[in-house]
From TrEMBL:
It comes from Pelosinus fermentans JBW45. Its cofactor is pyridoxal 5'-phosphate. InterPro entries: Aminotransferase_I/II_large (IPR004839), HTH_trans_reg/aminotransferase (IPR051446), PyrdxlP-dep_Trfase (IPR015424), PyrdxlP-dep_Trfase_major (IPR015421), PyrdxlP-dep_Trfase_small (IPR015422), Tscrpt_reg_HTH_GntR (IPR000524), WH-like_DNA-bd_sf (IPR036388), WH_DNA-bd_sf (IPR036390). In the C-terminal section; belongs to the class-I pyridoxal-phosphate-dependent aminotransferase family. It holds the Pfam family Aminotran_1_2. This is Transcriptional regulator, GntR family with aminotransferase domain containing protein.
């Protein structure tokens, strides 16, 4: 589906329908909308362009009459010609026939819609898994960037495992978490997502089975399915992933790997207990089941620090540990790390070199300076303070407006509240209604395909007043849908 981030100007002297035909013609003649590209359904298109259906119909009819668009009931409207193809003696390339041929499956439709809606003005983002722009540490970042020129000798390609100075800083940081490792076992990646992508494309055979919590962040990605891998979901209780099904699944499904988010799990915010961590490591050692520990939310504790990482509980290289600055500092830096046995890290580094020749060296120097200056720890304290206030505000609004329609646990850290609705609802319908009201939500079905009674709320992004207003309006929509 085409992205349309434009709308006609209602104050312009040119009629609205004419502005629309000019816009579409321009897109087609520039080749940005190739032949066979499908336009959004008319009702949606009218909504995006902020015009009424009849204005849109006049514009589309004109383009159909010119032969640029075609339409058929039930199949929608698509680009039929461009001015070049009308004149050319040979047919033009059909790019659309390539779109589903590559390795990657498209994102879930609802994820594509979220990715687009996030940048619409005045949208209240009630599910976004990111720190609010209000948290941006402008002064600290300025001082770090001012100091960089003294450190940086060049911005050339870095070595395959990443900037040594950054890996040295991460080594010191990891030691404070109980992970004792050398710099040769640490590799820098462009965010935790790249770590997952590298693991998936470098270490796992095509038909692998991955055990993981259900629900999980991983269900929101198409990465593993694109490589023909299967997920086998394991329930969580209040101490984290349940152990009994793991051994069963390992034996019966011949699982290749376990993926877990033990700290402030996305989307439930559950923290795996100390005892569960020990038992999980013991079980995976027995079953010879390697573990990916995704620990990107660790630093966002609000009540007390979480137990030591799984990686700190074993010495035989069972766990590949992933960390990132995305949730605690800034996702735009695109800096994360993987820790694991040296041969594995070398393999991943070799594949990363084939992909991108390394993460941005400017970002790597910046990240290193955050650690070396001590400002990262100072920043974390401020983030925790601000998140505590938001968590309280969100829980207060929930208590006022959702007590009769949902249940939830107060999170002890991270960003999320996993809201369980008392009645199942059509998640797509709820999503659309909320979006029309300027509320962007993350339905639970993104993290568990079968869930029609959960929402992942986040208190990290929207401002305090937006949280209050947004949660109230969301409760009204849910109550209307329920009746
Ligand atoms: C559990 C988990 N892992 C990884 C990521 C991706 O992080 P990054 O921005 O570091 O790639 C996210 C982002 O939502 C996440 O929730």
């Amino acid at each position: 589906m085409l992205t349309i981030d434009w709308a006609p100007n209602h104050k312009d002297s040119m009629p609205l329908y004419r502005q629309i035909t000019e816009y579409i013609k321009n897109k087609i003649t520039l080749g940005e909308w190739p032949i066979h590209s499908k336009l959004p359904p008319q009702r949606r298109l009218a909504h995006i362009l902020q015009v009424n259906r009849s204005t849109l119909t006049i514009a589309l009819d004109e383009l159909i009459a010119d032969g640029l668009l075609e339409t058929r009931a039930g199949s929608g409207t698509w680009v039929a010609n461009n001015t070049w193809s009308v004149l050319a003696s040979t047919p033009t390339v059909n790019w659309n026939s390539y779109l589903d041929k590559g390795l990657y499956l498209p994102n879930l439709q609802i994820i594509q819609e979220i990715n687009q809606a996030e940048f619409k003005p005045n949208m209240i983002r009630l599910g976004t898994g990111e720190l609010s722009p209000e948290f941006f540490p402008r002064d600290m970042m300025s001082s770090i960037l001012r100091n960089l020129p003294e450190r940086i000798n060049s911005l050339g390609y870095e070595e395959p495992k990443g900037l040594l100075f950054l890996r040295q800083q991460i080594r010191i940081y990891l030691r404070s978490l109980g992970i004792d490792t050398s710099v040769s076992s640490i590799m820098i990646v462009s965010g935790a997502l790249q770590a997952l992508q590298l693991i998936c494309s470098s270490l796992l055979p095509k038909d692998s089975t991955i055990l993981l919590e259900k629900p999980s962040y991983l269900f929101s990605l198409k990465l593993f399915q694109s490589m023909n891998m299967q997920f086998s979901g394991i329930p969580l209780d209040k101490e984290g992933i349940e152990l009994t099904p793991i051994a069963f699944q390992k034996q019966h499904k011949n699982a290749n790997l376990l993926y877990t988010i033990p700290c402030f799990h996305n989307p439930t915010s559950i923290v795996m207990s100390k005892q569960r961590r020990r038992d999980l490591i013991h079980l995976c050692q027995q079953e010879q089941l390697p573990v990916i520990e995704d620990d990107v939310y660790r630093e966002l504790w609000l009540d007390s620090p979480p137990p030591m990482p799984l990686k700190a509980l074993e010495r035989e290289g069972l766990v590949l540990y992933i960390g990132s600055l995305s949730k605690s500092l800034s996702p735009g830096l695109r800096i994360g790390w993987i820790v694991g046995p040296e041969p594995v890290i070398e393999r991943l580094a070799d594949v990363k070199m084939q992909n991108d020749y390394g993460s941005s060296s400017l970002s790597q120097w910046t990240a290193a300076e955050w650690f070396a200056s001590g400002l990262y720890q100072q920043h974390l304290e401020e983030v925790r303070k601000a998140l505590r206030i938001r968590r309280e505000a969100a829980c207060k609004s929930l208590q006022t407006h959702f007590a009769d329609i949902a249940t939830w646990q107060v999170p002890t850290g991270g960003f999320y509240i996993w809201l369980s609705l008392t009645h199942p609802l059509s998640m797509q319908k709820l999503f659309n209604l909320a979006l029309n009201e300027g509320l962007l939500i993350h339905p639970g079905s993104i993290y568990d395909y079968l869930s029609n009674r959960h929402l992942r709320l986040s208190y990290s992004y929207a401002s305090l007043s937006e949280l209050k207003e947004g949660l109230y309006r969301l409760s009204v929509i849910i109550k209307t849908l329920k009746t």
